[in-house]
Amino acid sequence: MQTPEARSVPGRRAVSFSVVDPATGETFDEASDQQPGELDDVIVRAQRAWHGWRADPAARTAALRAAADAVETAGDDLARLLTREQGKPLAESCAEVARTAARLRYFADLAPRTRRIDDGRPVHSEIRWRPLGPVAAIVPWNFPLQLAAAKFAPALAAGNTMVLKPSPFTPLATRLLGSVLAAVLPEDVLTVVTGREPLGARLASHPGIRHVTFTGSVPTGRAVAAAAAGSLARVTLELGGNDAAVLLDDVDVDRIADRLFWAAFRNCGQVCMAVKRVYVPARLHAEVVEALAQRAKAVAVGPGLDPETRLGPVNNAPQLARVEQITEQALADGARVASGGHRLDGPGYFFAPTILTDVPPGSPVVTEEQFGPVLPVLPYRSLDEAVDAANGTGFGLGGSVWGTDLDRAEAVADRLECGTAWINHHAELSLAQPFAGVKDSGVGVAGGPWGLYGNLRPFVVHRPQEG
Ligand code: NAD
């Protein structure tokens, strides 16, 4: 994806880049355009800080709890800045800040378990867990704070230090978060760097980094894995999704329509685990299209700082162009619009919430990730056909099944090839659960204790039994 515009002093390299408010399309601030060469010093410092940070688990717990408190204290400033640069409604930014603090608190109290192996041999074998060293985190623009916390909370709790790079579309709230946390964490335990590419590429390939944890698109994930291969750093990749919602023939459309709508449109559809395709029994197709289109027409779209707004703008100009292009392609392929289908007049990156019907199954809005406020609703004739279609893309992040008979719905959910499947919900996550995509949607496991162990390595000590 294109990156933001550089601001340079004539005759010198760019020193900053513009940050745009997606509700206006206007630049409202700048962030430092750090250069790849600056990472050497940052990573040496992270390496030095690691020795103290890894040594004292009780001090880490206390520091991470203090970090959670500090995030809450700065909550209003963080949320406003987040809405300004990301576009989401202020209430959703406040919820994101709350989830950031909750994640810190959850991992502050999580410790790895030392285990003994008892396999009958005359030795004591004990598995202990060691941190890895400086970890690099690279995150996208859709949930900048919450996804950053999903990286730094487990990594720091495990005793690693971290260099964190936000997306150049949303560097400001993360930069503020970095300074809030710097006041309560030891120096250089968490460093936020901002800049345009190739800063991320250099961070992923830097020989001082022992684990690269990345969230973003599939193509960039592949580039990150290739970059990290040089130093054989561990790689965790949380990548794109194209989640299907499969409605069963006993579904109560009135009852689920709101939940289904928001599962697709929350954060303007810019959620890795949004519902991105809906499969409906042919008999119910018109009713479901109508229920979703009604909601799409009625929802309040506007700037995130307006308290009436439920749906903000698309985050950035290249993503808006992508949403527009994938919709136009669907229309050219024969789809029809049940609501929306176009940009909204006026300033900012607004796109009318769009429900598409009659979409050919091969159209990119079905086979690829639209990552925006556009939803195709597809009819099916047999359940096998629906399950095959749901499983028929390269993605495998999440999926959901909607119906009244919960046992039957669960049996269908069990057939979905993805990391998490919900019944009558979508994208509801607990801090304590594993989070892992299959196929192109990811490598490695984040979330819960699995996220902690993903930032540790086993260290085994053998010693002979006494006597
Ligand atoms: P992106 O892949 O374009 O960028 C992600 C991050 O990588 C940004 O910080 C970007 O600056 C950086 N980057 C770009 N090129 C790089 C390179 N060559 N080397 C290293 N870093 C590089 O993704 P995006 O457009 O910011 O975010 C949207 C994507 O993220 C969607 O595909 C979405 O599904 C995915 N996502 C996945 C999850 C998940 O948990 N699975 C969560 C949120 C978003």
Automatic annotation (TrEMBL):
The active site is at E238. The keyword Oxidoreductase applies. Residues 16-452 form the Aldehyde dehydrogenase domain. It comes from the Bacteria. SUPFAM superfamilies: ALDH-like. Coiled coil: none annotated. Pfam families: Aldedh (PF00171). Keywords: Oxidoreductase. CDD domains: ALDH_AldA-AAD23400. Belongs to the aldehyde dehydrogenase family. This is Aldehyde dehydrogenase family protein. It comes from Streptomyces bambusae.
